[in-house]
Amino acid sequence: MRHNKTGRRLGRNSSHRAAMMRNMVTSLIEHEKITTTDARAKELRKVAEKMITLGKRGDMHSRRQALQVIRDRKVVGKLFEMVAPRYKDRPGGYTRIIKLGARAGDNAALSLIELVEEEFTAKPSKKAAAPKAAAKAAAVEAPAVEAPAEAAEPAEEAKE
């Protein structure tokens, strides 16, 4: 039984799996999107998000920690100077996985994993949204009350 054992084994021993994840996260940061199987993409997402979080911290210790995983100095430089500043206001969710269908040779499920590009906008809290909703409701009701009153005035003039 494998109770409380997280992560997929991907049919490899631990050293091979770690080396594969290093290579894949290096390629993902270098090219900003890669195509791989669904299971690998889901495992890669964990490693890539940790690397981007290190890049957001930006200090020398986090750069050295990133170099333990990403062994290419140019890619780590790109991570810290170009990729991480893009996500300075985003609290997570730096990658997107898009299902592509089945691979022709072995029918394996393929996915595209990429770094998200669009700007992050924080959702308004429920407390902040409630006064706006009340103000909108009041604004909608006010013209509705005035419109019948204006319609009543011409009718009174017609009677006179």
From TrEMBL:
Residues 127-152 have a biased composition (Low complexity). Pfam families: Ribosomal_L17 (PF01196). It comes from the Bacteria. InterPro entries: Ribosomal_bL17, Ribosomal_bL17_CS, Ribosomal_bL17_sf. Residues 124-160 are annotated as: Disordered. Keywords: Ribonucleoprotein, Ribosomal protein. PANTHER family: LARGE RIBOSOMAL SUBUNIT PROTEIN BL17M, RIBOSOMAL PROTEIN L17. HAMAP family: Ribosomal_bL17. Belongs to the bacterial ribosomal protein bL17 family. Part of the 50S ribosomal subunit. Contacts protein L32. This is Large ribosomal subunit protein bL17. It comes from Desulfuromonas versatilis.
